[in-house]
Amino acid sequence: MLTVRAPATSANLGSGFDVFGVALETPADVVRVERASETRITVTGAGSQYIPEDPNKNTVGAVAEALDAPAHIEIDKGIRPSSGLGSSAASAAGAALALNALYDRGLSRTELVPIAAEGEALVSGEAHSDNVAPSLLGGFTIVSGDHVTQVDTSIPVVVCLPDQSVSTRDARGVVPDSAALEDVVETVGNAATLTVGMTQNDPELVGRGMNDAIVTPKRSALIDGYDRVHEAALEAGATGVTVSGAGPGILAVCEERDQRDVAGAMVDAFDALGVTSRAYQTRIGDGARLY
Ligand code: HSE
Known about the structure:
Layout: E1 2-11, E2 20-35, E3 40-45, H1 59-66, E4 71-77, H2 87-102, H3 109-124, H4 132-137, E5 140-144, E6 147-151, E7 156-162, H5 168-173, H6 181-199, H7 203-209, H8 216-220, H9 226-235, E8 240-243, E9 250-253, H10 259-272, E10 277-283, E11 289-290
Parallel strand pairs: 3-4
Antiparallel strand pairs: 1-2, 1-11, 2-4, 2-5, 5-6, 7-9, 7-10, 8-9
Helix pairs in contact: 1-2, 1-3, 2-3, 6-7, 9-10
The structure holds L-homoserine.
């Protein structure tokens, strides 16, 4: 039996819609695989009651199929589904890494990205690599067409997860079909700033570069209390705040010294609105680990 710990991820980072992603040190899914004549999946842990175990309906079933690697696959969910933290992507990335090793397929982590993304397509209706890429490769990733660029970095972040769910399908339904040129120009400038911030491990630049005038205003409207929590995080010292992935998780970047205050301010702001939440004080970290 092989075991993989696959980290949660945050995609988009505001200005990098469907392009940017980061691996988070916590939370994570644990995927265990054992050779079998046909694929069987069991799911335990956070939100497991909402995750189908039918291999034709589970992200990891699609991964096993793509790698021609039938297995008994146990998924222990540390990442709640529909959270904006790449829950299904972590399972897919973990399964891809584990099954590749179990069957000696010899594929590199980069080569596993499109295979894990096939699993994602099953859940969201479209194959996005912006969550599976950081879960496999770690750090900050830029997905551009078939190409993935990876940068190691260790920026402190807080992800505040309210007790609400937003499905990726619904969140994609509010993405505008087109954008004004001035908004595109502003967002490109921010994305470039953020990228430099990642390479320089600079939370100030990353936070400034997270602003997005195109997708985030539409997406944030789906999250009860977003504006108050956004404001509270900035007041507590966050350098940037945005929707994590498709939401409802909210991602804040900050200096390490402000992390506890930012987390407390976000939870308190949700609390004042009658919304229960929990905050992960974490960092951008490594990709999936094979044990
Ligand atoms: N970039 C994707 C989105 C991430 O925001 O819809 C979720 O797959």
